[in-house]
Write a structure and sequence with these properties.
With 373 residues, this protein is an alpha+beta fold. The protein is built from 11 helices and 12 strands. The strands form 3 sheets. Strands 5-6-2-1-8-9 form a 6-stranded mixed beta sheet. A hairpin with a 2-residue loop joins strand 11 and strand 12. Helix 7 packs across helix 9 and helix 8 packs antiparallel against helix 9. The chain starts with a helix and ends with a helix.
Length: 373
Amino acid sequence: MKRWLLLLAMLLPLAALAHKPSDSYLTLRGADHSSDIAVRWDIALRDLDYVLELDRDGNGALTWGEVRQRADDITRYATSHLELSSGNQACRWSTAQPMMLDRHSDGTYAVLSLAARCPGLAAGLRARYSLLFDVDPSHRGLVQWIAPGSASSQPLIFGTDSAEQSLAMQPQGAWQTLKQYVTDGVWHIWIGYDHILFLLSLLLPAVLVRQQRHWRGADRLGSAVQDVVKVVTAFTLAHSITLSLAALQVVSLPSRLVESAIAASVVFAALNNLRGTIEDRRWVMAFAFGLIHGFGFASVLADLGLPQNALVLALVGFNVGVELGQLAIVAAFLPIAFALRDTPFYRFGVLKIGSLAVAGIAAWWFAQRAFDL
């Protein structure tokens, strides 16, 4: 019983992670024959409220008036956590336009329009980012850097382990672009808890065989591997199709619909482990719902930005990264699951209690996303 309670305790914190982890979005744009850098910075209001307590009346709902009154505080807080320097000189900040609001797939963001004057720009540009790191080590700054005279952007990700980086004054090559988007894809699948729980819900019965409405351990690892390969291949093929179509703007779906459907897919996959409605054809479920998950991946890729001069390369790199991250999860899961397959802990604690907990968490995600709670 203690082990099953521990399993539930590990899963319940995910209920708070209905949306993707905290990110902010920056576009830094240089200009020919100028030392100024134009900066657009989108920061989630929920993050700003957490550190600056924007909700003065404490009613849980931020108004434009509450946000606008703190515009100067927001700007000071942001610019104190982003240091741009050229040569040995720090760039000087100024406000280009009044603060605005914009909607992203996970909520409302404050939009700061700034300018950074960097007198020694020809000597190169470095950025040090530390926004929210003291309260949320998982926070990231997603940057699109457009060098002076360049038509393409360089994507950069700032985190606690990559807080300071150089911004190339020349467009990056094909290898750098591919490497960056592969890394982005791996990272996204590892922090995409809804994608992970959907995949694991489909894989949990792979090491079991259902006979007379009861589960027993599979006799051979080979049969379990074959089942896993079917599920993973179907999921990969499906989300690769819709990811590509959405990224290339061939097909578009409302983000709330997509995110709600992804949560519903996790509920369905988890409850199927309790009822056993779909047993030998879980790969069909993986393909059908994988089409929806692909649109979710595409929204993240859109936030990262796609360089128009290397569109296909970036798309391929991100897709490869997602698959590598997915395979790493499967490689860690399968040996442990097979070793535990004949134990009551796995068949009851992990499969049944775990699936029930996952279904409950995903149902809460669905309510949050569908009704914008």
